[in-house]
Write a structure and sequence with these properties.
With 139 residues, this protein is mainly α. It is 49% helix and 6% strand. The protein has a domain of 94 residues: Arc Repressor Mutant, subunit A. 19% of the residues are buried.
Length: 139
Protein backbone atom coordinates (compact mmCIF):
# COMPACT_ATOMS: atom_id res chain seq x y z
CA UNK A 1 0.00 0.00 0.00
CA UNK A 2 1.25 3.39 -0.92
CA UNK A 3 2.17 5.99 1.56
CA UNK A 4 -0.44 8.82 1.77
CA UNK A 5 2.24 11.47 1.33
CA UNK A 6 3.42 10.02 -1.94
CA UNK A 7 -0.17 9.94 -3.26
CA UNK A 8 -0.80 13.56 -2.21
CA UNK A 9 2.49 14.73 -3.72
CA UNK A 10 1.19 13.73 -7.15
CA UNK A 11 -1.49 16.47 -6.94
CA UNK A 12 -0.78 20.17 -7.13
CA UNK A 13 -1.88 22.28 -4.22
CA UNK A 14 -4.62 24.84 -4.81
CA UNK A 15 -2.99 27.05 -2.19
CA UNK A 16 0.34 27.19 -4.04
CA UNK A 17 -0.70 30.30 -5.99
CA UNK A 18 -1.69 32.05 -2.76
CA UNK A 19 1.61 31.06 -1.14
CA UNK A 20 3.56 32.32 -4.18
CA UNK A 21 1.68 35.62 -4.07
CA UNK A 22 2.52 36.03 -0.40
CA UNK A 23 6.22 35.51 -1.13
CA UNK A 24 6.31 38.10 -3.93
CA UNK A 25 7.32 41.61 -2.86
CA UNK A 26 4.23 43.70 -2.35
CA UNK A 27 3.77 46.64 -4.72
CA UNK A 28 2.94 50.08 -3.40
CA UNK A 29 -0.83 50.65 -3.55
CA UNK A 30 -1.95 53.45 -5.85
CA UNK A 31 -3.13 56.61 -4.16
CA UNK A 32 -6.37 57.90 -5.68
CA UNK A 33 -6.53 61.48 -6.90
CA UNK A 34 -9.19 63.81 -5.56
CA UNK A 35 -11.07 66.70 -7.09
CA UNK A 36 -12.57 69.33 -4.83
CA UNK A 37 -16.15 70.29 -5.68
CA UNK A 38 -17.97 72.93 -3.59
CA UNK A 39 -20.93 71.64 -1.56
CA UNK A 40 -23.02 74.30 -3.30
CA UNK A 41 -23.13 71.99 -6.31
CA UNK A 42 -24.89 69.25 -4.32
CA UNK A 43 -26.95 71.49 -2.03
CA UNK A 44 -28.07 74.26 -4.40
CA UNK A 45 -27.24 73.62 -8.07
CA UNK A 46 -28.51 70.03 -8.39
CA UNK A 47 -31.96 70.72 -6.84
CA UNK A 48 -32.40 74.09 -8.55
CA UNK A 49 -31.38 73.22 -12.12
CA UNK A 50 -32.45 69.54 -12.47
CA UNK A 51 -29.52 68.63 -14.71
CA UNK A 52 -29.53 65.31 -16.54
CA UNK A 53 -26.68 62.81 -16.44
CA UNK A 54 -24.88 64.06 -19.54
CA UNK A 55 -25.10 67.70 -18.37
CA UNK A 56 -23.66 66.79 -14.98
CA UNK A 57 -20.87 64.77 -16.64
CA UNK A 58 -19.92 67.60 -18.99
CA UNK A 59 -20.10 70.24 -16.23
CA UNK A 60 -17.90 68.16 -13.90
CA UNK A 61 -15.46 67.48 -16.76
CA UNK A 62 -15.08 71.20 -17.43
CA UNK A 63 -15.03 72.06 -13.72
CA UNK A 64 -12.16 69.64 -13.10
CA UNK A 65 -10.22 71.06 -16.06
CA UNK A 66 -10.60 74.63 -14.85
CA UNK A 67 -10.47 74.37 -11.04
CA UNK A 68 -9.04 71.00 -10.05
CA UNK A 69 -6.16 70.50 -12.48
CA UNK A 70 -3.21 72.68 -13.44
CA UNK A 71 -4.55 75.36 -15.76
CA UNK A 72 -2.86 78.46 -17.16
CA UNK A 73 -6.17 80.35 -17.26
CA UNK A 74 -7.42 79.38 -13.80
CA UNK A 75 -7.49 82.99 -12.54
CA UNK A 76 -9.85 83.77 -15.42
CA UNK A 77 -12.06 80.70 -14.87
CA UNK A 78 -11.36 79.56 -18.43
CA UNK A 79 -10.54 76.00 -19.42
CA UNK A 80 -8.22 74.77 -22.16
CA UNK A 81 -9.50 74.15 -25.67
CA UNK A 82 -11.42 70.90 -26.11
CA UNK A 83 -12.78 69.10 -29.11
CA UNK A 84 -16.27 67.64 -28.91
CA UNK A 85 -14.82 64.29 -30.00
CA UNK A 86 -12.34 64.26 -27.10
CA UNK A 87 -15.00 65.13 -24.53
CA UNK A 88 -17.43 62.54 -25.90
CA UNK A 89 -14.71 59.87 -25.96
CA UNK A 90 -13.60 60.67 -22.40
CA UNK A 91 -17.16 60.71 -21.01
CA UNK A 92 -18.43 57.79 -23.14
CA UNK A 93 -21.20 59.94 -24.60
CA UNK A 94 -22.34 60.57 -28.15
CA UNK A 95 -21.05 63.80 -29.66
CA UNK A 96 -24.63 65.02 -30.07
CA UNK A 97 -25.22 64.47 -26.32
CA UNK A 98 -22.13 66.53 -25.48
CA UNK A 99 -23.18 69.38 -27.76
CA UNK A 100 -26.72 69.33 -26.33
CA UNK A 101 -25.38 69.30 -22.77
CA UNK A 102 -23.07 72.24 -23.50
CA UNK A 103 -25.97 74.24 -24.98
CA UNK A 104 -28.19 73.49 -21.97
CA UNK A 105 -25.43 74.43 -19.51
CA UNK A 106 -24.98 77.70 -21.40
CA UNK A 107 -28.73 78.37 -21.29
CA UNK A 108 -28.62 77.91 -17.48
CA UNK A 109 -25.60 80.29 -17.45
CA UNK A 110 -23.48 77.64 -15.67
CA UNK A 111 -20.82 77.95 -18.40
CA UNK A 112 -20.10 80.50 -21.11
CA UNK A 113 -18.46 79.75 -24.47
CA UNK A 114 -15.33 81.85 -24.88
CA UNK A 115 -14.87 80.34 -28.34
CA UNK A 116 -15.67 76.95 -29.83
CA UNK A 117 -14.28 74.32 -27.46
CA UNK A 118 -13.21 76.74 -24.71
CA UNK A 119 -15.44 77.65 -21.77
CA UNK A 120 -15.65 80.04 -18.85
CA UNK A 121 -16.66 78.04 -15.76
CA UNK A 122 -17.51 79.92 -12.57
CA UNK A 123 -15.84 78.64 -9.40
CA UNK A 124 -19.18 78.63 -7.56
CA UNK A 125 -21.35 77.80 -10.60
CA UNK A 126 -23.55 80.93 -10.65
CA UNK A 127 -22.86 84.65 -10.59
CA UNK A 128 -24.86 85.01 -7.37
CA UNK A 129 -22.76 82.41 -5.56
CA UNK A 130 -19.53 83.92 -6.90
CA UNK A 131 -20.66 87.29 -5.49
CA UNK A 132 -21.73 85.71 -2.18
CA UNK A 133 -18.34 84.04 -1.70
CA UNK A 134 -16.34 86.98 -3.09
CA UNK A 135 -14.96 85.11 -6.11
CA UNK A 136 -13.58 87.54 -8.66
CA UNK A 137 -11.99 86.88 -12.02
CA UNK A 138 -9.15 88.68 -13.75
CA UNK A 139 -10.31 89.96 -17.10
Amino acid sequence: MEDIRSVLSMYKSKNKKVQDANLAPSAEPEIPTLSEIPDIFFDEIMPQFKLNRSEISVLMFLYRQVWCRPNLYRDHGIGPLNSYADISHHLHLQQSEVIGALKNLESHKLILAVRAGQYFVRKFFTEEFDDKYAQHYEF
